[in-house]
Amino acid sequence: MDRPVAGPLSPVQVIVPVSRRRATMQQVSRRYDDFIIRVRNFTSLYIPCHRKTPARNDDDATTSGITLDDSDKRVIRLNEPQVQKYCNNHISTAKYSVLSFLPSFLFEQFRRYSNCFFLLIALLQQIPDVSPTGRYTTLVPLMFILAVSAIKEIVEDIKRHRADDEINHRLIEVLQNGQWHTIKWHELSVGDIVKVLNNTFFPADLVLLSSSEPQGMSFIETSNLDGETNLKIRQGVPTTSKILETKDFSQFRGTLESEPPNRHLYEFNGVLKEHDKQAVALGPDQLLLRGAMLRNTAWIFGIVIYTGHDTKLMRNSTSAPLKRSTVDRLTNTQILMLFFILIILCIVSCIFNQIWTNEHFKKDWYLGIGNLLNKNFAYNLLTFIILYNNLIPISLQVTLELVRFLQAIFINMDIDMYHEESDTPAMARTSNLNEELGMVKYVFSDKTGTLTRNVMEFKKCSVAGSMYGVEETPAQSLLVQNILNNHRTAPTLREFLTLMAICHTVIPEKQPGDSMSDIQYHAASPDERALVYGAKKFGYVFYTRTPTYVEIEALGVQERFEILNVLEFTSTRKRMSVIARNSKSEIKLYCKGADTVIYERLAPDGVAYRESTLSHLEEFATEGLRTLCCAVSDIPDDVYEDWKHTYHKASTSLQYREQKVEDAANLIETNLRLLGATAIEDKLQDGVPETIASLLEAKINVWVLTGDKQETAINIGYSCQLLSHSMDLILLNQDCLDNTRSCILEHIGNGRFDNMGRKDAALIVDGKTLKYALSCDLRREFLDLCITCKVVICCRVSPIQKAEVVDLVTTITKSVTLAIGDGANDVAMIQKANVGVGISGVEGLQAACASDYSIAQFSYLRKLLLVHGAWNYSRMCKLILYSFYKNICLYVIELWFAIYSGWSGQILFERWTIGLYNVFFTALPPFAMGLFDKVTSAEQMLKEPRLYAPSQNAKLFNVKVFWRCIVNALFHSVLLFWLSYKIYEKDVIWKNGRDGGYLVLGNIVYTYVVVTVCLKAGLLTNSWTWLTHCSIWGSIVLWFIFIFIYSNIWPALPVGAVFTGMDDMVFTTPVFWAGLLLIPISALLFDVSWKAYRNSRKENMLTPPMKESRSSETEGYRMVTPRGRNEQYEELA
């Protein structure tokens, strides 16, 4: 995850000499009061009048700046009943309850237009004498489809209920009436004092009071919250850390005030007000979150502040934004068009019905149709709507859902995308976008942890103007030799190594008997761990941390530093500082951060190594190394005492606490003396250059959005072959809107262009310029410049800028975009893109949890897009087109029969065969296409990225292709009906001269339709497996078996009386068998010829032909089983 970029300097940030610091401290209270007044004035001017009146106490607001009154602030009484009723601790992640399932499920299902349409048809069929197809031929298939969806929802929700019950019924010790009782988690209440044991989860959000460790320290693991497996320190405040006995807890009285429940995992503001004691500030260091686990600590005592769905874990359990694929949207549009055509068809049929009746009621008086003249036009319209309703496939939605679900399983079980080292498989977190993976035109990638490994290694440093590397032992290092030889730079070298050893929040782990070399470090970020290991390589070993001091071994000499304050790193500050007192009682501020932030805080006499360090920084960046500047400042005792009160007031404020703490930090982080800089290597992940080369060859544009320095980003661009040395580099580093505009306009149209109209150039933009480029005035021009360049790299960008860039391209170009990242700062762009891919990285699972698909390595993106994406797009397109084809092929025959039957609305087929056509007889071929069909093998797809073009450019499914398929279906329906009608025209098709009636014709036509659409599925299939054979030939056999059974069940079952003996009538006529051979072949002759012609064209010879006809010859899916992922994996054919 890239480090966030700092925002503009705060209004009260100043740089003052030491002599003026004390006076500055005395002014800070007035600064805070002025700041609050300004914010309140702004609030009163711009916040709508229905907002509550601002409170007078400036401590009565959350950190977000929203003013609180007494009803907003949570006040928890200690060891007393709570005045206000809070949320209970029962949690539920299930979608449904027993009572809510039916209404909620039906609401979700009938939000789909197709289901509403078929429900309308089913209701119309209940009107007497309206439906020509019976009362239940639509209702029963609709109920079946809804039942399948309901069973799927129920099965998934039962799993959620069971998981919830397991959690809600866990046990916890709680103090009640002066005694400890064991209760279930869901019985916990706000204000309860609980005891949590080692290696157990926290049952709610707690404030840590005391623990088994000295000074109330405890260690927690938050992997369930953010994916980080390193241990973190939490510490009770001094006033509660000594409360260990039950009687002391029983006498614990007062109130705990906190901000309302919110979703910010790393933020908390509260105040503990014990009776007759000074108020104590509570912050994130005292917060124990539900979902975290207690580690390396025997027990802790805590007080419950947020329960159930008020906990931060549950507040973060929000669903990702709903995304729909391009194919889905186009399908819905075409369904709407088909519906309008259906209505027009019905109106035309009604008109012809009236015309025919008027012409024949006198001439053909024996038909008794005179009474039809008085029939209502709308009545006839309803009849024809019911007759033609199946033009829209009723089974399409459930087929799509099931196929996508199984496609997602194939992605999850692909062994080629399984990372054995971290035991991480690929995971499709949604199945709605499987085909969207085959249409990607833009990939937006984070750098750190995505292109690189995010496994940091300290490589070299610049101290006092000299560069030093790492040797095998400290004694071999020139830096250590200079210290031992009392070189003139030795004091600066000692300060530099001291800063590396103590300016961090790393936790050392040392087992009894371990030497200094065996110490393991747990850090919040890989950078911090790398710096501590770097100090260790120079002989400065950090080995002890307590809440008040740290201990290091400096070249064999043990030193203790009292930690007075830790000013933590934030995305705005972009630096971290530690104020420490050494053994000489000197107070020093050690600060490390980005060069731009440190340099502007240097004292006039602290810039001795400014230019040489800057030169070394540029050299480090050119090598692709991550850099930090290091500086120190001496703080007089009286200045520190004044500042300490200021900082305490800021840290105990409930209103605007972050801003006040930042302002206070700005006051002390001044007049720094530059020590040097560090350089850390973050290597590229395996396969990144090859993956990017394949994506570029597939005409996918790759943009890198990073928070790193420009030089580092450019160097990584060359390393991963995103940039080539033949490219021109266009650098946009402007400091105002006008300069940015002129620079963009200057480069548009200039430069060398390739045959695709693109510049042979890379655009490099920094975050400051990007702010102007994304303004309303320049957005379009900036995008035009970006599109004309082969590569775009945005440096020093903030998370919101990443999202803005993705949104700009997605909105204006209408192309399918994909964003990939590994950290929390990538979540915004992942959710903005059409497809979001998260890397399960070192920095946690925030990105993976917010993504649509998660993978362990960037290189797996190659197979995810070029293979699974292209395959799934092709499969879904064929499935959708085939579903419409087979429906129109059968049900338009009712229109042709209407011409023959005087537009009477009479059905040609037996009513139950109409309803079972989609659900039974032609249901399997679409599944076979959607799951097993592929244009070519995975190896060939990876070898020839150009094969991605048909799916990327929507060649397989667009308006033209859709209506071509519809016309093809109409053509087939014409041949299937009228040829069958011609052979049956004289009614006599048996040698005994008997007449079978219109149902014989109907079943003959129905048989030819089933055979034709199944053979058509074979023509559309590129890859034949044994399952494909079963689905196609099995469907045909299934219809013949059905005819035999259905013809003989009456009167044993009171259904199908008109079908009795149909097998004898159909199967005993040679006309049927002759037609079975000739008519489907005649219908498909044009299709076969067209496919042969297309396959013979030279431009289509790029796709290697698939000549597989047996499952043994078909490439199997290489899959990983859910269990035993480290065992031997087998291939699933």
From TrEMBL:
**What residues form the catalytic site here?**
D446 (4-aspartylphosphate intermediate)
Pfam families assigned to the protein according to its UniProt record, in alphabetical order: Cation_ATPase (PF13246), E1-E2_ATPase (PF00122), PhoLip_ATPase_C (PF16212), PhoLip_ATPase_N (PF16209)
Annotated transmembrane regions: 335-357, 377-396, 884-903, 915-932, 961-979, 999-1019, 1031-1050, 1070-1090
| Residue sites binding ATP per the record | D446, K447, T448, E528, F569, K592, R626, T706, G707, D708, R796, K802, N825, D826
User: Its Gene Ontology molecular function terms?
Assistant: ATP binding; ATP hydrolysis activity; magnesium ion binding; phosphatidylserine floppase activity
* Region span, Disordered: 1102-1133
Quote the record's binding site residues for Mg(2+): D446, T448, D822, D826
Q: Report keywords, A-Z.
A: ATP-binding, Magnesium, Membrane, Metal-binding, Nucleotide-binding, Translocase, Transmembrane, Transmembrane helix
What InterPro entries does the record point to? ATPase_P-typ_cyto_dom_N, ATPase_P-typ_P_site, ATPase_P-typ_TM_dom_sf, ATPase_P-typ_transduc_dom_A_sf, ATPase_P-type_domA, HAD-like_sf, HAD_sf, P-type_ATPase_IV
**The protein's name in its UniProt record:** Phospholipid-transporting ATPase
Biological source species:
Anopheles farauti
